[in-house]
């Protein structure tokens, strides 16, 4: 991938690949069978992360680094949970509650809708369709064919349930939410409070000494903290003891993290989190907007507890606009923004062959956190970083959708990119970071561990 094209990709995100940044991006798309530039896009996002890590490294007294990324490896990183093996066993995540409705379904108006059972939404979606929890695929399809796609989307949204009509990209850009997102950068950085500068001290890695509280689950948010850990941050993942999750996703995004449970509905749990916040540098959350505010941990509340905090938040459909706060997932961002329609070509809409938005939004959230840490070092302040799956999806669409999927090369033999280590789950084989850096090569110091397996305290 040539330098000029990589710089153009960055500019389409409202970002700059500095001409002085020493990075080689080897290879070109198509790697995966899709018309979208997924491998190249992921590689550029990681190059921007590396560029920011290098800037911080030089603030700490280090010398400029050379970087390299293989486009095939970057593409593989968008499917890393599928490459993971534990004790020799590989495979996709086990089905969870609601998974029987999570698919693209035909509607009576000739359109298609993607329903998503989330962790708890399956029964509500089926009830809206007049079905019970044991409904078969044939029964669900028959029920959706009795409804108009947009009417069903509105009805489910009114109940706080997850669904998105498979729109074309042109339809999405005419939609008020698409227009609201088009006016925003891919990475939003907002100063939310005053605080004195906190310069970086000397250290052996770009983020050594940076403490990250990770209150996220399922891919995008967890990827933010995992990627910060790649560059030396101390990450403490806080999970709720009763919140459902997906074990294989936890395995994949848990590298470099320590794990603890806290019940934020318990005053003692909230008090413990407050103490952790006071010692943190980054607070990363991916819950539905407003959920943590009700428990005292919204951006302004956390900035008051810890002036100088970097508050990272990610969601499905962005901030502002008529869909502000609407729940969603990777699949729904693809459906809404036109990816599924384009991926389907002349046939019905289908999903792209990777979690393109989840992982890349995680990379962009990492980039925003690093940018904010550098701003804090130079001028002080508390900072809010906002990223969303739909905005990332729009960026990918904007990069082009002109590739021939039949010409995809595939990731090939991934053996050279895989690592093995003992973990809290067993002997794990997993994909190493795709970004290479000459002075501070990204790596995870800690093995992945099950949620709640440690104590809610900082290491040092």
TrEMBL record:
Q: Give start-end ranges for the coiled-coil region(s).
A: none
For this entry, the protein name equals: CoA transferase
Q: Where is this region: Disordered?
A: 441-460
Q: Where is the signal peptide?
A: none
Give the PANTHER family listed for this entry.
Answer: ALPHA METHYLACYL-COA RACEMASE-RELATED (PTHR48229:SF1), CAIB/BAIF FAMILY ENZYME (AFU_ORTHOLOGUE AFUA_1G05360)-RELATED (PTHR48229)
Q: Can you tell which superkingdom this protein's organism belongs to?
A: Bacteria
**Could you tell me which species this protein originates from?**
Tepidiforma bonchosmolovskayae
């Amino acid at each position: 991938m040539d330098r000029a094209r990589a710089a153009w990709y960055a500019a389409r995100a409202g970002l700059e690949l500095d001409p002085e940044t020493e990075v080689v991006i080897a290879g070109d798309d198509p790697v995966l069978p899709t018309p979208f530039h997924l491998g190249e896009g992921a590689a550029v996002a990681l190059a921007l992360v590396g560029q920011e890590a290098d800037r911080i490294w030089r603030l700490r007294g280090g010398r400029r680094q050379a970087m390299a990324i293989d486009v095939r490896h970057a593409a593989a990183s968008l499917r890393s949970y599928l490459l993971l093996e534990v004790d020799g066993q590989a495979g996709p995540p086990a089905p969870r509650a609601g998974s029987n409705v999570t698919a693209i379904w035909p509607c009576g108006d000739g359109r298609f809708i993607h329903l998503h059972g989330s962790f708890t939404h399956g029964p509500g979606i089926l009830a809206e369709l007049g079905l019970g929890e044991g409904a078969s695929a044939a029964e669900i399809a028959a029920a959706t064919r009795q409804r108009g796609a947009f009417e069903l989307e509105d009805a489910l949204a009114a109940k706080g349930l997850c669904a998105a009509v498979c729109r074309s990209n042109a339809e999405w850009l005419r939609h008020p939410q698409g227009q609201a997102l088009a006016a925003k950068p891919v990475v939003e950085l907002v100063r939310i409070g005053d605080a004195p500068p906190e310069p970086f001290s000397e250290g052996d890695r770009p983020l050594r000494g940076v403490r990250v509280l990770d209150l996220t689950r399922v891919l995008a948010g967890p990827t933010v903290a995992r990627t910060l850990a790649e560059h030396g941050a101390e990450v403490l993942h806080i999970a709720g003891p009763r919140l459902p999750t997906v074990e294989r996703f936890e395995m994949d995004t848990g590298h470099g993290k320590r794990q603890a449970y806290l019940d934020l509905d318990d005053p003692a749990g909230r008090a413990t989190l407050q103490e952790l916040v006071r010692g943190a540098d980054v607070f990363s959350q991916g819950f539905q907007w407003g959920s943590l505010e009700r428990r005292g941990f919204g951006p302004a509340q956390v900035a008051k507890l810890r002036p100088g905090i970097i508050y990272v938040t990610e969601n499905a459909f962005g901030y502002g606009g008529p869909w502000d706060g609407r729940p969603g997932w990777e699949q729904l961002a693809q459906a809404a923004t036109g990816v599924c329609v384009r991926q389907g070509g002349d046939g019905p809409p289908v999903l792209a062959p990777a979690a393109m938005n989840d992982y890349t939004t995680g990379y962009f959230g990492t980039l925003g956190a690093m940018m904010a840490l550098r701003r804090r070092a130079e001028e002080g302040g508390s900072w809010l970083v906002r990223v969303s799956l739909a905005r990332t999806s729009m960026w990918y669409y904007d990069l082009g959708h002109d590739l021939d999927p039949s010409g995809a090369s595939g990731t090939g033999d991934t053996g050279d990119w895989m690592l093995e280590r003992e973990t809290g789950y067993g002997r794990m084989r997993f994909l190493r970071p795709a970004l290479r850096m000459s002075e501070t090569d990204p790596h995870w110091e800690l093995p992945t561990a099950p949620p709640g397996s440690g104590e809610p305290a900082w290491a040092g």
